[in-house]
Design brief:
Two copies of one chain form a homodimer. Chain A is an all-alpha fold. Chain A is about 70% helix and about 0% strand. The structure holds a DNA duplex. Chains A, B: This is TetR family transcriptional regulator.
Chain lengths: ~220, ~220
DNA sequence: GACAAACGCGAGTGGTCGCTCGCATTCTGG
DNA sequence: CCAGAATGCGAGCGACCACTCGCGTTTGTC
């Protein structure tokens, strides 16, 4: 019943005990993969290129990842884990008296900060060339985000049908993703201006829907 | 000096006289390529798969196209040609007294009709996995569209700086592309509802910018 | 009908890529 | 210090893919 004491995974056939060196190599390889995925996309990225970027041999790469897809999966999982922390704070606490502009502005700022800090995320989610496993994970995350937005909108749009709320949530996310693409394509002041545009689009889109509740006076 | 009489292209080394059969095969191959590109994307699409879809041999395909990229290029050029006709009418004539809602609604309807009729277009423009030549053509078209929208906005936003107009045009196009993705992902009534949402987003976004000029009373 | 050119085929070629294998090196527990 | 495991290597294997080549068939022209 009780294991020895160290980290063990009785569920998997091979627990694959790692040394500290191994964990370092994994982080190194994931960073290299992020770099390569960002510049060339997933399909065009070769495992040999990732290994070269990390400064190791192809064989070493396959010591830690069973195949190319697993690299992207693991990278995605770590990003989602990081994101859940940032987004839990970004979307969950919708104070009842918060003006719409503030709520949208804060959420957009948090999302934009995360995405500009981890451009791989956009590359992985946006590519239409992902194999099954990644698309699956992406859809799951997408559904989670839409659910969160639905939760916020439901309290703002009391008279709307569930289908309307869902549709509105999808539109909001679509607007954000389109804005993100524009934001990532610019730098400095221009980038900040585009961030403001995204906020404006969302506020003006949602303003009439939420009625007088949280809209502008 | 004088050529025989038939159609000849002195500019190119090989005029490559075509028979009617050849033109038919080209159309057939482009249709097959559109189908395959739509389902698998450009990079994942194999030339052998395109030839199989068209019911011909790989050798026959290469009788009419020098390489895989040329297929996408030619397909893109024909689509752009078709689009220019539809879009010339969709964007050019901005009647001075047209309400904003009508102008946006008409433009969105035309664009959506074209894109739902030719889903390949979205697949080719949206993929981040295209080789140089296609990206180049895409950027050119993108710039053309932005220029058109800028022209429309310039007359609606007299007080705005050129940079503001350009940014607004990019945002409009981004909104449209995001909406297109949502529209293509749904069918029937849901699709129509999303089309309406796109119009609403654009009208509410542009409304405050154009002032009292063409906005709602 | 005869000649040439366009068309059509499909096995084959060179190259790339994901991934493996055998072996050397480094770490860890006893 | 010494088995044994984890780590590291890089040449190489099999598969796939864009593309070619030689040869047979159809079509247009005189």
């Amino acid at each position: 019943m009780s294991d020895t004491s160290e980290k063990e995974r009785p569920e998997k056939g091979q627990p694959r005990r790692r040394q500290a060196r191994g964990e370092r190599r994994i982080a190194q390889l994931l960073a290299a993969a992020a770099q390569v995925f960002c510049t060339t996309g997933y399909t065009a990225a070769s495992t040999n290129a990732i290994a070269r970027e990390a400064g190791v041999s192809p064989g070493t790469l396959y010591q830690f990842f069973p195949n190319k897809e697993a690299i992207a999966i693991e990278l995605g999982e770590r990003l989602v884990h990081e994101m859940r922390e940032a987004y839990g704070e970004a979307l969950a606490p919708v104070a009842p008296a918060t003006p719409l502009e503030e709520a949208v502005g804060a959420a957009v700022d948090r999302f934009m900060a995360f995405n500009t800090e981890h451009p791989v995320f956009f590359a992985l989610m946006h590519g239409p060339d992902m194999p099954g496993g990644i698309t699956e994970a992406h859809d799951q995350l997408h559904a989670t985000l839409v659910g969160r937005i639905e939760g916020l909108l439901a309290s703002l749009m009391p008279g709307a049908s569930p289908a309307d709320v869902t549709r509105t949530a999808h539109v909001c996310l679509g607007i954000y993703k389109a804005g993100l693409e524009l934001v990532l394509a610019h730098e400095g002041a221009e980038r900040a201006a585009y961030v403001q545009e995204v906020k404006d689009v969302l506020v003006r889109y949602l303003g009439p829907l939420v009625g007088d509740r949280l809209g502008r006076t």
